[in-house]
Amino acid sequence: MTSLVPATPIYRTSPTDPLIIHGPMISPHRPDPAPYERITVTPAGTTIGAEIGGLTLSGDLDEETLAELRRALLEWKVLFFRDQDIDRDSHREFARLWGDLEQHPFFKYTQPGQTEADVTTLAKGIDSAGVENSWHNDVTWHATPSFGAVLRAVELPERGGDTLFCDTAAAYETLPDAVKARIDHLTAEHDWLHAFGNGMPKDAVDLLRPNLPAVQHPVVRVLPENGRKVLFVNSVFTTRILGVSEEESNELLAILYRHVQRPEFQVRLRWQPNTVAFWDNRSCQHYAVSDYFPQRRVMDRISIVGDVPVGP
After folding, report:
1. Of 287, 188, 306, whose CA–CA distance to 244 is shortest?
2. What backbone torsions phi and psi does residue 230 show, to the nearest 5 degrees?
3. Is 32 part of the annotated catalytic residue set?
4. Fold (CATH) for 32-304
5. Angle of CA points 249, 21, 164, to nearest 5°
6. 138 is catalytic
7. Where are the beta strands (DSSP E) in 104-258?
8. Of 143, 170, 207, 261, which is most buried, counting CB atoms within 10 Å of its CB?
9. What's the rounded Cα separation, in Å, for the pair 248 and 175?
10. Is there a catalytic annotation at residue 194?
């Protein structure tokens, strides 16, 4: 019997929805079939997320194992490691294998005595609800946004507190060609002021603003390792697309935000004690589900310095 389901997506626009897509959302990029010899890689999603087995995270992994982890991270964007009963030193040294450790850009000005990047404990619960439940890449308002981050579960609520990740490479690759042609050479502005600045005392804003101005990044970023294009705008820190009218900027951002949030590009991590997630901040966005208040959720986190994004 002939299937009535179209083999390719159907694109249409409407006044109330800038981009409606029905049908298969299949990226043309397929996972690398080459075997792994040092680790096990079990996909958790179609294009994003994989559980890694066969090792304990530390700073003394051999080069062959590291090479396989690099390949897995590039392919799957976020790696999950279970049963990692490691201390803060091991956490830090594992992150250091991937580059210089990142001190949050605010700390340089608000906490001048803190000169070294280190593991930071993020505790949410009865006194502080989780507010990271928006899709975003980390610190895109910085000239060199983070390469990645390593997050470890320390204390978890009985239920809830999951983290979702979305694949911005697959999202780009499944856009209509007409939309790609419109965005491939555009630049967007990113700023912290309308996000972190909300509710911040004026004297704090006045202290930070001269040293942390708005920055510009390509709307489409190219990964140097494989030349893949990824969408590099997010609803938290991107303020506008430059070189087009305000109306067109709003239209394009609405299209891209809606598209990148499609479930076809997502994977959901259900945390367990001593689970570690390591994500490539260049090629995925994340969303911390805030459904556990007033239960406690305590995570240890450290991030890795990135470079200047480059467009096509």
Report:
1. 188
2. -130, 150
3. no
4. Double-stranded beta-helix (3.60.130)
5. 80
6. yes
7. 120-124, 148-155, 163-167, 187-190, 215-218, 220-222, 229-231, 238-241
8. 170
9. 17
10. no
| Tokens coding 143 | 């000239």
Domain boundaries along the sequence of the chain = 32-304
Whole-angstrom Cα distance, residue 149 to residue 305?
9
CA geometry: angle 218, 220, 224, nearest 5 deg: 95
Catalytic residue among 91, 217, 282, 286: 286
Q: How many residues does the chain have?
A: 312
**DSSP class per residue in 134-165:** S-B-TTTTSSS--SEEEEEEEE--SS---EEE
* Single-letter code of the amino acid located at 288: A
Per-residue pLDDT tens listing for the chain (312 residues)? 444 444 556 555 554 555 666 778 888 888 788 899 999 999 999 999 999 999 999 888 999 999 999 999 999 999 999 999 999 999 999 999 999 998 876 665 555 555 667 888 888 877 776 667 789 999 998 999 999 999 999 999 999 999 999 999 999 999 999 999 999 999 999 998 877 767 777 877 778 888 888 999 999 999 999 999 999 999 999 999 999 999 999 999 999 999 999 999 999 999 999 999 999 999 999 999 988 888 899 999 999 999 999 999
Q: What is the dihedral of CA 82, 84, 89, 92, to 10 degrees?
A: -10
91, 92, 138, 191: which is the annotated catalytic residue?
Answer: 138
Calpha distance 67→147 (Å, rounded): 17
Token pair for residue 35? 């075997």
| Burial of 12 per CB tally in 10 Å (0-12, 13-18, 19+) | exposed
**Catalytic residue chosen out of the listed positions 91, 92, 136, 152:** 136
In a 13 Å sphere around the CA of 117, the CA atoms on its Cβ side amount to: 20
